[in-house]
Specification:
2 copies of one chain form a homodimer.
Chain A (H helix, E strand, L loop, with lengths): L4 E6 L8 H13 L3 E7 L1 H8 L9 E5 L10 H7 L4 H10 L5 E4 L3 H12 L13 E3 L4 E5 L9 H17 L7 E6 L9 H12 L4 E7 L10 E3 L2 H26 L3 H20 L8 E3 L5 E4 L6 H16 L2 H12 L7
Parallel strand pairs in A: 1-2, 1-4, 2-3, 4-11, 6-9, 7-8, 7-9
Antiparallel strand pairs in A: 5-6, 10-11
Chain lengths: 342, 342
């Protein structure tokens, strides 16, 4: 018998809460019998949505939480003061072992703070990275770290490489994932101080398939499966990816609507185009895990709809079943003392 | 009478040299009577191309240079050893006052090194930034710095803001250009150590229209006219811009070729689409100036064709006529001693 994965899902987080969040939960439990979802949020609001669906009652349970953390709130304060918010209550469930994972489409800042403060880091993990999947010409790449902790040290980046590698191999099923470091040139002597210091450490690291520097231009081509960087660069990459994609697609739409001839062309090409652009849409691939915590915390897009929530919940099941955290523990903790054997 | 602008043009640099370079020069002198171009390169190769065109003989002159600096060569060595290369000869002409500007589609590294070592910095300029124009939904934005000198200091970024502002106002004709700093959030307290230190300096800087932080997502929307960052981030932004654009466009083409219906649609939409995508093509806007030097040095894309070369040469004329370097000198040198009056 498969072990059950139980997930505390923030029913109040994101632009489309609670309706899309709950719809995603219902979809997920239907697809995955080994899944139990705790919908954390305002009892009444959640009940009102949930009543619309038929589902296995043993798989979904409501956990009341009266407060909501808004996106604009200063995260540290919000986590400290709103003890009965869906985020704090949900993360406490992970901390207390009542849930394996916490999933939220709410405030990134609050999720990052709560993950560290409430759920806590795995012993030996210096910094938990936020690691979204970004679409590429070949599939997806894990961009690690896009979190809030900037000005990272080389040792952090080495841990990111290890954790990202474990995630891609076991959750996404990519054997021996290629790990690259974001750089401004392909040569080893290129880069800023951080990259130059980190490069040789990654090169000598056992257990990862380090392929060297990856220039930003080659990220969208899928040159590496795991792209390591500090959070400032990671954030710039993630946001620019979204921005350039959105502007380019809107420019193309504009172009297609500019003449009668092109309008007819657009009508004919639309279904095929839609399919291709979907493959380049990050939300298809579920949320971004905050790795290295005592439990799993996943941030999904603020604009998440049912499909992304469902995909994220199913990813959490894989995460649990593949024992990712046990693997991270082993990798980090043995990696901590590489000199011990020499 | 207008003063003449004379430009040393590297006839041997870039993927399409010398043919496209020379074609661009011929176009430019035809459009701009106040322009004189020195084609610097191998006499015979240049003559062979030049003979194909009719042009005002007083506007184009060949300057012999027997060597070529290849893209793969280590820049410092190349500049030091290849004294008779088109790059070194061309930059010396600027240094010696024989040309106002040097333009090349060759090795970025060599251009950056040569600019500093041969042409030299304006007194007071701490670091000359490379500032390409990137396309946005609204037009273009100056991304400053994308050069080779990473790990910048706050004072460098303040100078970049001033120089970029002068360039956009006077060369591109944008009144009171909006200056933003690349950041990972909109608030003043967000960012890494560099950004946090630079932000208040920019805020109190007179003579620039500082609008605060710009998240990477908003760069393609044209939120700022001048986007200030250190070179590592700048390089990542520039390269990712190209990469995401190229992959997305190829995905769209692929999508349009996937069914018979979409193929017909593509045929009909193609002319209109081409027009829109052209507006999002950086090469339309000419090269990237290396600002803050005693003369102008401009790097154009390695893949430059005649049109980009021509546009770049015309930009150099505006640069000279608008007395950009005099304005930079004034801004930097008075800015150097803001405390003197207090």
């Amino acid at each position: 018998m498969t072990e059950r994965t139980s997930i505390a899902l923030d029913a109040m987080g994101g632009d489309n809460a609670p309706a899309e969040i709950i719809a995603g939960a219902v979809d997920a439990v239907e697809k995955q019998p080994a899944l139990k979802v705790f919908l954390v949020g305002r009892q009444e609001a959640v009940e009102k949505e949930l009543i619309k669906y038929r589902y296995d009652k043993s798989q979904i349970e409501i956990v009341g939480a009266s407060e909501i953390i808004e996106t604009a709130e200063p995260p540290v304060n919000a986590i400290r003061k709103k003890k009965d918010s869906s985020m704090v209550v949900g993360m406490k469930m992970v901390k207390d072992g009542k849930a394996d994972a916490f999933v939220s489409a709410g405030s990134s800042g609050a999720i990052l703070v709560g993950g560290q403060v409430i759920v806590g880091r795995i012993k030996g993990v210096e910094r938990p990275p936020l690691a979204p999947l970004i679409p590429t010409a070949k599939g997806v790449t894990l961009l690690i770290d896009c979190g809030a902790n900037v000005d990272a040290r080389p040792s952090h980046l080495v841990q990111f490489a290890k954790m990202g590698s474990i995630y891609m191999e076991n959750v996404l099923g990519i054997p021996n994932p290629r790990v690259g470091i974001v750089n401004i040139g392909a040569e080893e002597d290129k880069g800023n101080a951080l990259v130059k210091e980190t490069f040789p450490l990654l090169k000598e690291q056992e257990g990862i398939n380090f392929i060297g520097s990856v220039e930003a231009r080659n990220i969208p081509y899928g040159q590496a499966d795991v792209v390591v960087c500090e959070a400032f660069a990671g954030n710039v990459i993630l946001k620019l990816y979204e921005g350039v994609g959105a502007v380019l697609v809107s420019k193309i739409k504009e172009g297609m609507m500019s003449t009668l001839r092109s309008k007819i062309g657009a009508l004919l090409a639309k279904p095929a185009l839609k399919e291709t652009l979907k493959a380049f849409d990050a939300s298809e691939y579920g949320g971004a895990p905050l790795l290295g915590l005592n439990g799993l915390v996943v941030k999904t897009h603020g604009s998440s709809k049912a499909k992304e929530i469902c995909n994220t919940l199913l990813q959490c099941v894989t995460f649990k079943q593949q024992k990712i955290n046990e693997k991270i523990k082993e990798s980090i903790q043995t990696g901590e003392k590489p000199a011990g054997n020499n």
